[in-house]
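Notebook B, p. 112. Complex prediction, attempt 2.
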Amino acid sequence: MIDVTHKGGCHCGAVRFEAGGTPKFVARCHCDSCRRTTGGAFSTWVGFKDEQVTWISPPAVYPSSEGVKRGFCSNCGTPLSYQSAQWPGETHFLIGVFDDPRQYVPAGDAFADEALAWCLHRD
Ligand SMILES: [Zn+2]
Ligand SMILES: [Zn+2]
């Protein structure tokens, strides 16, 4: 993965962020909570350390469960980010909110036991 500045934002442009360096991970999540809060059959997350991340205009925050903050745009409704006490010091972004999502390739599946059967990736 190339060491570049990663840029992204919501659909209407009110929320924007940048992240520097290399993502810590790229992975799909099949948990019920991600499914419900994004509306997608599964979610693909690009994770960074907080110190790599700059919010140019920050999101609204929804606490989807204990210790979890999900960032979204209060104007257009786009879900963008995830922070959890379980992974302190990290901000995870949904792959679809990056300006260039094609550069990220997920390396695994989290919560595969909660997946919709047809969503599990097989190489
Ligand atoms: Zn927006
Ligand atoms: Zn999840």
